[in-house]
Design brief:
mainly alpha, 375 residues, 7 helices
Length: 375
């Protein structure tokens, strides 16, 4: 098309020049040719603008349809991926349910069997503990009735009585001293101040009075401790009491160490150990079975819910995907039509551009001719 138009323009220019030189076109005619060429150019511009507008509209419509198609494709792909996940979960749940239900049935049966056995084992264990306690109490009674223990007990009691008597005599002397009497008086005074502070309800005063009162009491007790420590009879009695208590404690420790070896106690402890082992075994198996019941019940419930709701969910996804696929098919049909319209619009725009270029060239040629026209 372009070579043809170029040839036409060349011929037109040549004719115009020949006519201008040979025939000497009048200026008014040349002006009319310019005006006519200008009108043709204006018409070509208008048609080109219309074609460009139509092409732009067609391009936007085409782009919108392509974007919608891409969005629908993404939605469909995402829905299909999610659908596959749901199908996989439903399949896995369906396959897992029989085994989980078997585990639940077996663990429930085991728990039912182990519960009475555990209760019986607990009763046996408690009975064995009672027997052990009784055997130890019996052995302790024999021990505490033995001459050796009674002698040690009597020695402690005698030493304690001697200490009490010596302490009483020592403190009787102390109580007659002025220092002690002053200390006791301070205790009484401070106690009264504490009572008044409590009655007034002032916590700061109560704290201060309480500290003072306790300090004065400690001073009195300190006087007693010093007096007793300085008294020969009290000190000697205290040493005798400490020695007697140690002898008694050593005797009891020896008894406690040999107690598990005494025949009756040893037999009771052996029976208790066996009962404890039996109880621990049954209780452990019961606890394990009950824990398995809980976990398997939860697992069965979760898998059953997936199976129960999975069918409906899968159908919903399938329907939604099918609807989106129908929408995509419609968009693709519209896109094919839009592509044809865009191609036609672009071709028409190119043709209109060529027409406009030819009209512009013709206008320039007529303007040249006008420049050479005769008056």
């Amino acid at each position: 098309m372009q070579p043809v138009r170029s040839m036409q323009r060349f011929c037109f220019i040549a004719a115009m020049l020949i006519c201008t030189v040979v025939f000497a076109i009048p200026k008014d005619r040349a002006q009319r040719d310019v005006d006519d060429a200008q009108r043709r150019l204006n018409d070509a511009d208008a048609r080109l603008n219309d074609a460009v507008r139509i092409s732009s509209d067609a391009q936007r419509a085409d782009d919108d349809l392509r974007n919608r198609g891409r969005n629908l494709t993404r939605v469909i792909d995402d829905g299909q991926r999610r659908l596959e996940v749901i199908r996989r979960l439903v399949s896995e749940a369906t396959n897992a349910l029989p085994q989980l239900k078997t585990i639940l049935t077996n663990s429930t049966k085991t728990a039912a069997e182990k519960k009475p056995l555990t209760q019986t084992a607990l009763l046996s264990l408690n009975s064995a503990k009672t027997t052990t306690t009784q055997a130890k109490a019996k052995a302790l009674g024999v021990f505490e009735a033995s001459p050796d223990f009674l002698a040690k007990k009597q020695a402690v009691e005698s030493a304690q009585a001697a200490l009490d008597e010596a302490s009483k005599a020592c403190l009787a002397v102390l109580e007659r001293t002025a220092e002690y009497k002053n200390g006791v008086a301070k205790v009484a005074t401070n106690e009264e101040l504490l009572r008044q502070a409590r009655a007034a309800g002032k916590q700061e005063d109560v704290a201060t009075a309480s500290t003072t009162w306790i300090g004065s009491k400690n001073q009195v007790e300190l006087q007693k401790d010093k007096a007793l420590a300085a008294d020969p009879d009290a000190s000697s009695a205290k040493v005798q009491l400490t020695s007697a208590k140690k002898a008694q404690r050593d005797l009891r420790e020896a008894f406690d160490a040999g107690l598990p070896k005494q025949p009756e106690v040893a037999s009771a402890l052996a029976d208790q150990s066996s009962a404890q082992t039996a109880y621990d075994k049954n209780a452990g198996e019961l606890h394990k079975a009950e824990a398995t019941v809980v976990t398997s019940q939860k697992a069965v419930g979760e898998k059953q819910e997936i199976v129960d709701t999975g069918g409906t969910t899968i159908k919903q996804f399938e329907n939604d995907i099918a609807a989106r696929q129908r929408d995509l098919a419609a968009v693709n049909q519209d896109l094919a039509t839009a592509d044809r319209r865009l191609t036609d619009a672009l071709n028409d725009t190119r043709n209109r551009q060529q027409d406009r270029n030819a009209a512009a060239a013709r206008l320039r040629d007529t303007q040249i001719a006008l420049a050479h026209a005769t008056p």
